[in-house]
Amino acid sequence: MKNIYQLENQGKLWVNVTKQSEKELREIQKRFGFDELDVKESLPPFQRPKIVKRDSYYFMVLHFPVFDRETFRLGFTEVDFFLSQNYLVTVHDDKLSAIETLFNECKKDISSGNKYFSGTAAHILFELLSRLFDSIFPILLHVNDDINLVDRKLFTKVSGRKITEEILRLKTNIVTFRRTMQGHRTVLERLLSYAGRELDIPSFQNYINSLREFTNEIWHILESQKESINALHETNESLLTLRTNNVMRVLTIISVTTFPLTLLATIFAIPTLGNPFTNLPGGFWVVLIIMIFGAIGMFAIFKKKDWV
Q1: Which residue of 131, 132, 274, 289 has the smallest Cβ count within 10 Å?
Q2: What are the average pLDDT values for consecutive 10-residue runs of the chain, which has 308 residues?
């Protein structure tokens, strides 16, 4: 059936479902006898990361980050695993290249197929998880590059609304990243505690240690990125506040300086008061000079008080 692919080697079966639709899921439910609730939870919308032990298999849900190169926004996708001693069923929306890469490798390379299909089907699962976690690090590095780029631009003339939008985008991406990854450690530990002897988990201790290191390292990097982007956000807010204050100070100085001069000009323009400079030759220039010296005097006062 289209969107359902399978590999069989040494009595172990890997069924890879590349479309999370009801048609494909009903097909594998009929074939393997999966619980109705697990089938429904494999359909959109996405469920929280979890693991459930059934009578004949284990059902596991994990989320993985996906970067959109057009919008530069980080999202996530769900992968559902149905695991038993002799088979592994993966259900996803085909956004993670690591799954397809391993599947094709086992299909085309006999030695890889013999290697990963040895033991129980948990061997395939752990190798797949290892590659999925490994594929997360390039995204982390991309986020680091974005943070460094914003850091370099922050104190340049480029900073402003564009930088603020970049910082908010990065903060959103990191929050999404953290929400995507926060359930992995719990799910993996529960898999190890739930798993019975039929999965022969102790044989894959190297994988287990590696996955634990991956989850810890990824989480520590995310913590560091969160602190960095928060610091940049606070710095940007301080710079924007400083610039706003400078603009308000300049506008206030201009307003205070021009108000008395405007008032003086208005007073001289009132006919009932009489303007002593009206009949004086060059009276206009006298008034103008008074206003200029008044402006210079007020500016000197502001300068002396260190307001300018």
Answers
A1: 274
A2: 89 94 92 94 87 94 90 91 96 93 93 92 96 95 92 74 89 93 90 89 92 93 95 89 82 75 69 58 69 76 71
Domains in the chain: how many in total?
2
Reading the block at residue 203, the tokens are 């044989």
Identify the CA nearest to 233 among candidates 221, 243, 244, 225.
Answer: 225
- Amino acid 284: pLDDT: 65
66 and 212 belong to one structural domain: yes
Residues 182 and 287 in one domain: no
Token output for 122: 């948990």
Give the Cα separation of 217 and 237 in Å (integer).
Answer: 30
Token code pair at residue 241: 């506040």
Rounded to whole angstroms, the Cα distance separating 103 from 6 reads 9
φ, ψ at 73 (rounded to 5°): -105, 150
In contact, 257 and 295? CB cutoff 8 Å = yes
On whether the CB atoms of residues 171 and 229 are closer than 8 A, the answer is: yes
**Taking each helix axis from N to C terminus, what angle separates 184-194 and 205-269, rounded to the nearest 10 degrees?**
160
At 23, list the tokens.
């048609």
In CATH, what number is assigned to the domain containing residue 225? 3.30.460.20
The tokens for 136 are: 């997360």
C-alpha pair distances (Å), 87 with each of 52, 122, 153, 193: 16, 8, 52, 20
Relative to beta strand 73-83, strand 12-17 is unpaired
Among all chains, which residue has been given the structure tokens 């210079």?
A: 296
Q: Give the other-Cβ count within 10 Å of 14's Cβ.
A: 24
Encoded tokens for 217: 């390292």
